[in-house]
Design goal:
globular, binds magnesium ion, alpha+beta, binds guanosine-5'-triphosphate, 56% helix, Beta Polymerase, domain 2
Length: 265
């Protein structure tokens, strides 16, 4: 089953693997696609892929749209898989070399077709696959949870040292927290894919945060960030103060860690 949002990631990525394997047989891939997308998703996909209502064979036209969307989506799934693999290699290296678990968890998701359309509409951009590629940088998203603040910057340096990964945009919400209190390092990185005789740089959004930052963001996400009713100024202030207390604890834990193990790396 396809799910959107972080937390359903393993499925999203294993779905991706499944789709890649299924490209071995076009027929099977098409059957899989039709079953895999709900009627609501098909409406969005048709829109993005430029459905031709006047086509004499509407069935074939729908299959073309699904195919085009799968090809589009596959690039993002592959790009995320590559970044994820780099992160897993890095984690292993740190565990073996320094006996340090630099990454506690990796989560990921590809943006649902509905969210892609909503975001394009919010940005007042055309509803096409080409426009989504051009205007959205978070179709593939990976979240990395680390024990210490220093781990976040260490991972950033190691990732960006890879030839296959380039930095597109960096937002350091740890040094410059959002007014909400949100803290994380956001990197939009590009990774180059070669397929069907063309080369493209696919963006992946990586959110790096500590376990403590993640616990705050997870709670606040439901309480306020995605709460359609909104919250009062008092509640906003209190949430921001909670984030500040958590940030102080992160800094104290970092100092303790440095004093005990700082010289080892
Ligand atoms: P989105 O349209 O939400 O993707 O925002 P954006 O493209 O302007 O990027 P930004 O860096 O502001 O936020 C990207 C993502 O960071 C969001 O989708 C959330 O996952 C997370 N995020 C940003 N701000 C907050 C916040 O105040 N609270 C929480 N819980 N998460 C946030
Ligand atoms: Mg986003």
């Amino acid at each position: 089953m396809r799910r959107s949002g972080y937390g359903g990631s393993t499925e999203a990525i294993s779905d991706g693997r499944c789709l890649i394997e299924c490209t071995m047989s076009d027929k099977y891939r098409i059957v899989l696609a039709e079953e895999d997308f709900s009627p609501e998703e098909c409406v969005f996909i048709r829109q993005l892929a430029g459905y031709d209502e006047n086509c004499p064979s509407p069935g074939a036209e729908l299959r073309r749209c699904l195919n085009d969307y799968l090809v589009f989506q596959n690039d993002y799934i592959c790009a995320a898989k590559r970044i994820r693999t780099e992160l897993e290699i890095l984690e292993l290296d740190y565990r073996i070399r320094y006996d340090h678990r630099i990454i506690r968890a990796i989560d990921g998701r590809t943006k649902s077709v509905k969210s892609i359309c909503t975001k394009l509409q919010e940005k007042q951009k055309p509803l096409t696959l080409a426009s989504a590629s051009e205007n959205l940088t978070d179709i593939a998203g990976i979240r990395v949870i680390c024990p210490y603040i220093s781990d976040i910057y260490e991972i950033e340096n190691r990732l960006l040292a890879q030839d296959s990964i380039s930095l597109i945009r960096r937002s350091d919400y740890i040094c410059h927290p959002k007014p909400s209190g949100y803290r994380s390092l956001h990197l939009i990185v590009g990774t180059t894919l070669h397929s069907a005789g063309k080369t493209s740089r696919i963006p992946v959004e990586i959110q790096l945060r500590t376990v403590a930052m993640d616990s705050w963001a997870g709670l606040e996400h439901k309480l306020k960030y995605k709460n359609p009713l909104g919250v009062s100024d008092d509640v906003s202030t209190e949430l921001s103060e909670c984030a500040a207390v958590i940030a102080q604890t992160d800094e104290r834990m970092q100092r303790i860690y440095n004093s005990l193990f700082g010289k080892e790396k």
